[in-house]
Amino acid sequence: MRRLRRISLWRVGAPLALLCAGLLFATSATNARGTDLRPSRNTTLAGLVEEQSRRSASLVRQHAALTHDIEALQAQQGSIDPKLAKQFEDLSEQVGTRPVVGPGLTVTLRDAPPEVVKENPDVDENWLVIHQQDIQAVVNALWAGGAEAMTIQNQRVISTTGVKCVGNSVVLHGVPYLPPYTISAIGDRRKLQKALDDSQYIENLQDYVVKFQLGYDVKSESSMQMPAYEGTLDLQSATVPGYERTPSASPSVSGR
Fold this sequence. Notes:
One of its GO terms (cellular component) is plasma membrane. This protein is of the alpha+beta class. It has eight helices and eight strands; from the N terminus they run αααβααββββββααβα. The strands form two sheets. It has a five-stranded antiparallel beta sheet, with helices on one face. It has a three-stranded antiparallel beta sheet with strand order 4-5-6.
């Protein structure tokens, strides 16, 4: 009797165990959606940033290719007046949609080295990293020094370019970047350097360069090439400094 009871329990328990295992496998497959559930190096912040950067760069290349095709089709519709064509070229260079070459400066900003961070555990970690304000200070100084064109992380800077901190990365044109950060400007190198030296913010940054070994290097370039901006030029919103922003009423709300 005891043996018969053991056999009957096995016959009942085995199908239940197999059913539970099947549900577990199905749940894992659904959650994974074809990916590995085991954490890997790609799940680190640096890996995610690099992956997003590659994806964004691919989309930018697709956008540039489509824009080139549109321009080619427009050219087939008929010739453009030479004066308008010249004006278009001049404006394209000013806007940043044409590549440029010339002398200038490259500024490189870096976070404090890891050993400095370990040696200063009581120091506010915000003092040991490069922030968007530091990048913007360099950019503003170079514009004030007469920069004719500029890039950040080899991305062309235009009138709507914004720099924003997200965690320990900086987002530019929707793409996250990790340090070091490079800002290059084409123009008169002496005037650009003087503008950097005259910047009060950069002078304050130099204190942290000395105390905590933040990276701040300036390199003179006899000739540098800057790519054209290949993203969208659409302006989402803008305000005039000194004027209160008044939201516009939606036609569906106002009934007009």
